UniProtKB/TrEMBL annotation:
InterPro entries: Glyas_Bleomycin-R_OHBP_Dase. This is VOC family protein. It comes from Streptosporangium amethystogenes subsp. fukuiense. Gene3D superfamilies: 2,3-Dihydroxybiphenyl 1,2-Dioxygenase, domain 1. The lineage of its organism: Bacteria, Bacillati, Actinomycetota, Actinomycetes, Streptosporangiales.
Length: 154
């Protein structure tokens, strides 16, 4: 695994961008809003979630800001939400975390319900930030966006 980013859930993404820019000198990719199909650990049907996010242009590790979407996957108090890592095989990486005692929390899924793009796992203690594994296959798309290009989900 290769460390990629720290993910922060924030109440107001524009305000957080300004605060971290002033304090740390960070500059930001354009804020992207996109729908993501996710499945939770409860085994229920996948749902479409809205993700409003940006990444710092400085990194790695990058800083990801995610707007709190009330009632959604990324909701609750502002916090360090997750630590993200690139993995060459997402399903294998998620299974490896689970074998180490991490528990499923949420993951993006394809039309057949298989994990795609990213997945989060909770630490065995149930406390602290989640671990997010990000499929290495999406690295070119994400880095192009971070570097100033559009966000092109394929």
């Amino acid at each position: 695994m290769e460390h990629f980013h720290y993910g922060l859930v924030v109440d107001d993404i524009e305000r957080a961008m300004a605060e971290y820019a002033a304090a740390l000198g960070l500059t930001w990719a354009d804020v992207a809003t996109r729908a993501v199909r996710v499945a939770g650990a409860d085994g229920g049907e996948p749902v479409d979630a809205v993700l409003l996010a940006t990444y710092s242009r400085q990194g790695p590790p990058y800083v990801e800001l995610i707007q709190d979407v009330r009632g959604g996957v990324w909701s609750g108090a502002s916090r360090l939400d997750h630590i993200g890592y690139w993995v060459p095989d997402l399903a294998e990486g998620l299974a490896g975390l689970e074998a180490s005692g991490f528990t499923a929390s949420v993951q993006a899924v394809d039309g057949d319900g298989r994990p795609t793009r990213f997945g989060y796992r909770r630490p065995p203690s149930g406390t602290g930030p989640w671990i997010e594994l990000v499929d290495l296959a999406v690295r070119p798309q994400l880095l192009a966006w971070i570097e100033g290009g559009g966000y092109d989900v394929r």
